[in-house]
Amino acid sequence: MDTETRSEAVRALLRAHRTGKPIDPLTERFPGLDVADAYAIQAASVEQRVRDGAVIHGYKVGLTSPALRRRLDVDQPNFGQLTDTMFHPESQLIDPSAFVAPRVEPQIAFALGKPLKGPGITVPEAAAAVAWVMPALEIVDSRIRDWKVTLVDTIADNASSGGVVLGSTLVPPSGLDMRRTGGVLYHNGGIAGTGALGMVLGSPLNSLVWLANTLGAQGVALRAGQVVLPGPVTADVPVAAGDVVTATFASLGSVTARFADDTDTFG
Amino acid sequence: MTEWNVERAATVLADAEAGRTDRGPLTDEWPGLDLATGYRIQDEILRRKVEAGEHIVGVKLGLTSRAKQQRMGIDSPLTGWLTDVMVLPAGAPLVTRELIHPRVEPEIVFVLGERLSGPAVTAARAMEAVSHVYAGLEVIDSRYTDFRFSLPDVVADNASASRYVVGSVGRKPSELDLALEACLLEVDGEVVDSATGAAVQGHPAEALALAANSLARRGLALEAGWLVLTGGMTDAAFTRPGGTIAVHFTNLGSVTIGCE
To answer: Residue A93 maps to which CATH number?
Structure first.
């Protein structure tokens, strides 16, 4: 990938992000893009947003569920970066028009109490860096038209990140069963999905280990205070104006995202 | 051409089970077969099994997902009969050649401490009748090719019932939040799916109440001591000789089936 291609891809993604108008898959416009190119495009896009004032508050890990790995035929997860404006307080309405094609999935979130830097991180070290586990909803979104994404497209598009709502039940990681703790996703009051934390690479801690080691190989450390979304427990649901989505977890309580309808206004 | 009736359909399905041969849906040849007649065929097959020495030990519930019920146009689970010969003892292998095309589903299993008789059974009343809750794996094995059937077909075929394994950890229902009781399904050690009890009719007690009320419409009740397999929580996993299927529950322990 030459620098011109990278700049064009970054500009197209940032424009789509700003205007809410999706673009065609990057892999159609620039055939031959590989995973390394995709992460370079993601990094350049995030750097531009940081220059424009965004602050990086953590990471999401994607492609962690058996169903998604089969669909995209991948054996590795991917990651995206969470910036300050992506965090929505639980009590506030979320403007659905700020997204292109938003979908919501139930997760737990890890809040780090200590830095974590790979490579060579193992599960106990990762667990020891986690201060709190919280229930969370991730809003995933795709700047690529109709979610027509390949692995490369979604990585370039910041792993299809959109937003995060964190719940208010803070539980230390010790004593929490990271495999067999159950969660239920409610969409407008109906049960939309159920699952266990083990759907995330066998345990969400495996996801945190992968992230720390993958970032560490690039010289990047996870910092205290950062949030990591390790991956969803059920399939996602598409959301529209007026929707209410709740995730409830055993031992962790619940978290709710409310999307504004047409009668709500945003200043 | 011979006319179709309950006795003939029962013979055809019993022969398919005994001979391990699948066949096309009855409704292809008997378009008038309805749900009520499906249950009469199911009961006739049971009557013959009991006459041959088998004992009724409980029921299985099928089609307990609201989404699937809506697609099939019903508002209550199906039921099928469980007999003592269908039990697979813990640790015993599932011999796949004894069956047609077995698949395995993780389930929450109830043991009834008292008789439960509809109508007007509520989920709370149903839960009161449950003495213990167990983890289970149900082996389903449709007598129809490729599991292709309509509602009356699957009812006639005893809701695809075949074998079941019950776990070794019995919990009192009051100790558990069954809507959030999770299972993690592994095939050959790999996590393939997961769910919680909420996937079963919103709550397994809801499924039990609906089943008690449907049985009452047929003049039947759930008896004390019976097992109730409350319905598959995830999609069924395929079996293969040499394969292992395991389910791990939050509070109900694990159940494993090794296939031969």
So the answer is: 3.90.850.10
Q: Which of B184, B176, B80 is nearest to B131 (CA)?
A: B176
Q: Where are the domains of chain B?
A: 6-258
Contact A66 B202 (CB under 8 A): no
A194: Cβ–Cβ under 8 A, 6 or more apart, which residues? A182, A183, A184, A185, A234, B182, B194, B195, B196, B197, B198, B199, B233
ipTM for the whole complex: 0.92
CA within 13 Å, CB half, B3: 3
When scoring B175, B178, B180, B185 by the number of chain A Cβ atoms within 10 A, the one with the most, hence best to mutate, is B180
Q: By CA distance, what is A67's nearest residue in B? A: B192
Q: Is residue A264 part of a domain?
A: no
**Domain encompassing residue A7:** 3-258
Q: What is the CATH number of domain B6-258?
A: 3.90.850.10
The Cα-based distances of B136 to A90, B106, B109, B185 in angstroms read: 38, 6, 6, 12
- Say which of B190, B233, B249 has its CB closest to residue A180: B249
How many domains are there within chain A? 1
Share of chain A above pLDDT 70, in %: 99
* Contact in structure between B110 and B123 (CB atoms under 8 Å): no
Answer whether residue A174 is part of any domain. Answer: yes
Q: CA A156: distance to chain centroid?
A: 13
Q: Does B208 touch chain A (CB under 8 A)?
A: no
pLDDT digits (tens, 9 = 90+) for A206-234: 999 999 999 999 999 999 999 999 999 99
With 60 as the cut, is the pLDDT of residue A267 above it?
Answer: no
**Radius of gyration for chain A, computed over Cα atoms and rounded to the nearest angstrom:** 17
Query: Helix or strand or coil: residue B171?
Result: strand
Given a cut of 80, is residue B38 above it in pLDDT? Answer: yes
Please, which pLDDT band fits residue A256 given cuts at 50, 70 and 90?
Answer: very high
**Contact yes or no for B62/B80 (Cβ under 8 A):** yes
Answer yes or no: is A131 within a domain: yes
d(CA A206, CA A178): 10
What number of C-beta contacts closer than 8 Å exist between A and B? 71
Distances (CA, A) of B86 to A73, A165, B161, B220, B239: 38, 48, 8, 21, 17
* DSSP string of B177-208, one letter each residue: -TTTBEEEEEETTEEEEEEEGGGTTTSHHHHH
Residue A265 lies in a domain: no
